[in-house]
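Quick one, tokens below:
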């Protein structure tokens, strides 16, 4: 099978189920951003040494493919297709990991600036991309009420997880967090 099909040369693409839509469609933008997030998660994994965090990030990549599949599917045809689903346990996993990492961290007393080490910075970039994916999915939900609510919950919790993981990575690396000192 060739990677190029030439079917998108005029600015359209097919959803799972065959429906063609413009590449500018909010659904395409949403799952494209989830795909970008998945790539950033891969970059983060390449810079983290903690085995538990790496294993969780691998699970997250799998769930992001699940989210992307749901977003890439024509909602009218989705009931007839075998698209994997998110489960409440996927969100619970993120919450348990957040709690586990928070046990090792000092309470936050100031806003934190991204930086200090590549792993920390990449995790903050992934967090920002996750927030963008969440915003796009909220916009999509406003025009397509069939959007699975767990997708929004998962992306919201994932951005929290990535923030705490950035702090945890700094902790494991012995890197001091950069506290924001507002100019007065």
């Amino acid at each position: 099978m060739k990677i190029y099909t030439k079917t998108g040369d005029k600015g359209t693409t097919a959803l799972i189920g065959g429906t063609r839509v413009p590449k500018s469609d909010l659904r395409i933008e949403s799952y494209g951003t989830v795909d970008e997030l998945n790539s950033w998660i891969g970059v983060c994994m390449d810079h983290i040494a903690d085995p538990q965090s790496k294993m969780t990030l691998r699970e997250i990549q799998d769930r992001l493919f699940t989210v992307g599949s749901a977003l890439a599917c024509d909602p009218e045809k989705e009931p007839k297709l075998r698209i994997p689903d998110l489960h409440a346990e996927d969100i619970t996993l993120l919450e348990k990991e957040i709690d586990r990492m928070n046990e090792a961290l000092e309470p936050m007393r100031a806003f934190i600036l991204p930086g200090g080490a590549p792993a920390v910075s990449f995790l903050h970039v992934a967090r920002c991309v996750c927030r963008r994916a969440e915003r796009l999915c909220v916009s999509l939900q406003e025009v397509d009420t069939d959007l699975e609510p767990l997708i929004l919950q998962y992306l919201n919790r994932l951005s929290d997880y990535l923030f705490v993981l950035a702090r945890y990575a700094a902790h494991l690396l012995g890197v001091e967090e950069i506290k924001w000192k507002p100019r007065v």
